[in-house]
Amino acid sequence: MAIESDVLVVGGGLAGLTAALAAARSGGDVRLLSYKQSTLRSASGLVDILGYTPAGDGPLTDPYGAIPTLPETHPYRTVGVDTVREAMSLFDEAAPTYRGAHTDTNALVPTHGGTVKPTGRYPASASAGLASDGRDMLLVGLESMTDFDAPRAAAHLEAAGVPFDVRGVEIQFPGDLRADAKVTRYAKLLDTDGEVSVRGRERPAREALAARVAPHHEGEGRVGFPAVLGDDDPGGVRAALADHLGAAVFEVPMGPPSLPGLRLEDHLFAALDDAGVSIETGNPVTGFEGEDRVEQVFVDKNGAKIPNTAEQYVLATGGLVGKGIDSDREAVHEPIFDCHVAHASDRYEWFDGDVFGDHPFARFGVDTDHHLRPLAADGDVEFENLRAAGAVLGGYDFAAEKSGSGVSIATGYQAGHTAAQEAS
Q1: Residue numbers of the domain that contains 123
Q2: Which helix (H) or strand (E) element contains residue 165?
Q3: What is the pTM of this model?
Q4: Residue 257 belongs to a domain
Q5: Least confident residue range of 321-325, 372-376, 388-392, 397-401
Q6: CA-CA distance, 103 to 49, in Å (whole number)?
Q7: Within a domain: residue 105?
Q8: Per the CB 3.0–4.6 Å rule, which of 224, 269, 283, 290 could disulfide with 294?
Q9: pLDDT digits over 309-319, tens only?
């Protein structure tokens, strides 16, 4: 017997989670299918709206003001500025520890590589680190975390012309954690403020960490750490360190595995639970039945094809990186519904000869009508009850534009909201 729902969302990234939440908030009986764990745990936790134009102009001050100037094929032009604002309001409700909703202006957030990233929303844990803040900054790296070289990051920020003095130091994390300890080990230890052994003496972890930093602190108004400052109680960890150091404390967004990304995932899944969304993870959607309409999809469970039916469907499986768009030496395609993906017949035209050039593959994805329904090669709607959202969409380069999260939230919101309305 098929599992039934009003709206079925395929994909568990930011677009899929937003689509499911928007559909449920619009009154739909919603089911979410995700093959793998959410990609948010690999993301920085920053939520970009639009940092640069497709021509590379930026960083942009007002991302909303730039949206009407984007090419008509861009997903933001498909949904419109008002929908982007509505979608971000939904995000703000679901992620109450995020900041940035008070203004249309992008924040400039230092990253672990020493760059400054324009972003529309950022965790509260990063708020004391904004580049617009004139207070001097001390960056603290941990010797065991080789992906954050604090002195180098500080030098890069200085070279970028930030309006404050910045230094970087490396310390050893107190206690006997293994050199390859996961970020969650640091976080849990700081959450519980567990005892660590320092020169034969047991001390609370937060106090011991601050004591390691104190000799290097030269009165800077703020101190930045890699994003390991707690998982369950990051605010309490930062407050305790700030009290010991006499300076504001913030986290520098890191690469995967990302605690800010995991915290955001927790926020969104909690919101989905509250909204009554049914969630299934760990089993792939491998096919479907239907012609002008999708009648059902099949989930592979240990070789058995389990049918799932819905009135409306949302495709949010990601782009080339997430395998929502696939390719071989001959063609590019969308693997679940076989939606059309426009691309040159000669694969040598899929990329630019310059490694930093304008690569067509960066914009590969399905084209849609203004209801986000995928279009066939002849321009006709492929399935009247299927909508696409997030990185599976074509027409934009999210990496160059710094627009990936915003497009996922805006198109996920529009797809889920419209799907629920159509299903009612």
Answers
A1: 112-252
A2: none
A3: 0.93
A4: no
A5: 321-325
A6: 13
A7: no
A8: 290
A9: 999 999 999 87
